[in-house]
Amino acid sequence: MPWFKYVPVLFMLFLVLPAVSASQVNSPLPCKNTIKVGYNDWPPYAWQDPQGEAQGLDVDLMRAFTVYLGCEVHFINVPAKRSHQMLRAGQLDVLMGATMTDERQNYALFSTYYRDEELRLFVLYEQKDQINIDKWEDIFTQKLRLLVPSSGWYGADYQESQYRLEQEHLLVLSPDSNKSVQMLIYGRGDMIVGDTLAMPYIASQHQRIKLVPLKLVLDQNHIHLMFSKASIKTSQLEQFNHAIKALMDNGEIARVINKWQQMTLAKQSNMSRLNSPLTTLYVSP
Residue 35 burial (CB < 10 Å; 0-12/13-18/19+)? Predict the structure, then answer.
């Protein structure tokens, strides 16, 4: 083919390439520095494996978002309360699995939601036929003791009646969800409040017991990434929102969530009840 037939193509590339380069130079980078992501042990969403690596559903999604944007990411395991203090100070850039509240918006930016959360009450499998709750008030009329991890959001009904639960000696606070499960085993409470995916996973994987959810749904929320106002700009947030939309549209988010849902069901069906609680670490799938 004569060389001059390539001239129109070369001319068009000459016109297009400068425009693309200019767009890249002028657009803000989503992460000039490594993104510092705080997390605490909340399986199956996030936890630290025996090798010190972050694992879990939210961890997988965060890695997918940063790979899409070309970012480096560093996961830092910290207690829940300290992680919010570090985010406020800009020592952490992102927290995963966050519910948006007015108080948190004072010091954090929130991405568009990337998954949903459902909160329910759980009982031991052996007690599934003895305990039935149709409405929140049944807790008080039946005098059922409620085990609640001390940190987290557990719905408007709980928030509004927390003082009443304390006054009627129906509230038993625990340090975390795993301790709640242990206390349930030892009869310190009748029910646990928790996330519909996390609570059965923790019970089966850590304590080797099966929990059954009651039909009452306490709350349903959109879940977001939570960015530090001290270290992340609005332009960077917008690029993460773009990544979330792209991975939602191409099915990657749904694939990751489905993988962990199936894994949780498999662990519940394969576990066996032991006579005493285990103290083993969570293991990577």
Answer: buried
Cβ neighbours, 10 Å, residue 246: 15
Question: Tokens standing for 188?
Answer: 């310190």
User: Beta strand 35-39 with 171-174: parallel, antiparallel or unpaired?
Assistant: unpaired
In angstroms, the Cα distances linking 190 to 132, 183, 214, 275 are 11, 9, 12, 19
**Residue length, the chain?**
285
Interatomic CA distance for residues 225 and 240, integer angstroms: 9
Question: What pTM was computed for the model?
Answer: 0.78
- The answer to whether residues 119 and 217 touch, using CB atoms and an 8 Å cutoff, is yes
Q: Do residues 198 and 177 lie in contact, with contact meaning Cβ atoms separated by under 8 Å?
A: yes
Scanning the structure block, which residue is given the tokens 């980078």? Answer: 29
Q: 209 Cβ partners below 8 Å, 6+ apart?
A: 124, 125, 181, 185, 203, 271, 273
Unique residue bearing structure tokens 């939601």: 113
Q: What is the pLDDT along the chain (285 residues), one digit of tens a residue?
A: 454 444 444 444 333 333 333 233 334 556 788 999 999 988 999 999 999 999 999 999 999 999 999 999 999 999 888 999 999 999 999 999 998 989 999 999 999 999 999 999 999 999 999 999 999 999 999 999 999 988 777 888 999 999 999 999 999 999 888 899 999 999 999 999 999 999 999 998 878 888 999 999 999 999 999 999 999 999 999 999 999 999 999 999 999 999 999 988 887 766 544 433 333 333 333
